[in-house]
Amino acid sequence: MDGYDLTVGTTVEVHGLISEAGSRFNGCTGVVAQINKDGRYVIKLRDSSTQPVVKPCNLRKASPTCPDCIEVGDLVEITGLTSERGRWLNEHLGCVMPGAVIGRLSVKICATGQEKAIKELNLLKHTKEVILERAQGLLEKGHLYDLQRLLRGLPFVPECLSEALTARLAEGTHSEILGGTLKLVDISGKGKGYRAERIISAGEALLFDTAFCSTYKGPREYHEMETECKKKTERKAVADFFATQVMTLASGPSMMRMIESQLISILKTNVFQTIRDPDHVALFPAVSRFNHSCCANAFADTSKTQATVRALCDIRAGEEVCVSYCPVHAPRQERMEQFFGKGFDCNCERCKREVQEDPQFLVPCKCGKHSFSAQQNAKSMQRCPHCSLDFLKETSLGHLQEVEEMNAFMRTQAAAAENPLNLIETLKPLVERVIEGSCLAPKTHNQTIQLLNNFSGAHYFAATRVPGPHQSASFAASFAYKKKVLRAQATNHGQGTCQRDMNYFMSTEC
């Protein structure tokens, strides 16, 4: 529970401080010693003579139990972890399990069921009553994102509390900016958009939103969502939200609005396929206010019911926060095609660079000192200034077409039924055209990457499904080509954004 209703003598935990001086107190517990006239609280910390003065929003009620008394079976909250992997566990609840190691306790995370070894100083002991009191406070204040995280996996959640949370989320009208990170403002040339209100750290959750409508992806998706919207607006409270938050969203070009309803035009502009439920599309009104960039600094993690926007990198105060409306691994032309009918053209820094030189169409020269371009606006014939090797763009694109046709074959039942050793021999001539030392085809084009991934997979299946003396060499080849795939993927995804699409992670699998 946030600290606005705390009194002198209450045991509290400090959290959410971001300054260099203040962040060292995050996770520390103590008691409220004094409440100043400016509304700040003086905290007497345990095992420290320091008494920081903290805003109430950076305090929450904690158990008065000493953390040194944590035992097996206790309910604890993880706090104060600072490593890249560990900080994602902060604020998660868990149960202390048998099997402690020196200096650490085994904690079963309620939300995931995983067991983690955590130092005692990073554990805050709680009681069931404290947790339920915090949960009720979050519900009353409308902090549904924190409430949902708090209750996930807990075995003792009252049915009435769970039902109240479910009902609030199901309305599809709830959204919240988290931790004072963002502000919706006018952005020159773009309409509305979000700017960072303070310094934001990579990985921070910025905004939580619920889907106003969603449906299965298909030819009638927009009409089905239009019907859902009309049905929901029969309730006045939802109708008011619909009028102010949905019907004010950007719509497509005026020509499109002349031949279809305004709502359909808004849906076509703002509805996107969801990440966690790829067979669904959804409308998130608050998330829709984020402007697009192909070198995004934030990412919308979406399901058919909810969305959480997180920072992909550290963001300066005052900087615009953008998400990508399309897969960032795609070449510029493919990205532009996805924006057709949405009423804008992207002119981000990445797009400006790729108009001149798209990395997915670069072909390194054999000498290693120059790269040719197979891009549409590149010259048909090019010569390396270092070794005088000639490069024909049409020839390179012809090889790329052969690669695309081979990838199409690899998706057929015939390829699936073929002996992996035969597939290796079939793929090998094309693979030799795209590996280092060849200047015949682009090395990091999506089709090239897919070919290398298919080649890696064929070696993997040859090593695991076909007995013989080749198995050891096939294993080695599988991993070697998988590394080439990941290097090429990193090149495509590294153009100004830390985002990694599903395409990237799927490439790690055979």
TrEMBL record:
Pfam families: SET. SUPFAM superfamilies: SET domain. GO terms for molecular function: methyltransferase activity. Gene3D superfamilies: SET domain (2.170.270.10). Residues 180-326 form the SET domain. GO terms for biological process: methylation. Keywords: Methyltransferase, Transferase. This is N-lysine methyltransferase SMYD2-A (Histone methyltransferase SMYD2-A) (SET and MYND domain-containing protein 2A).
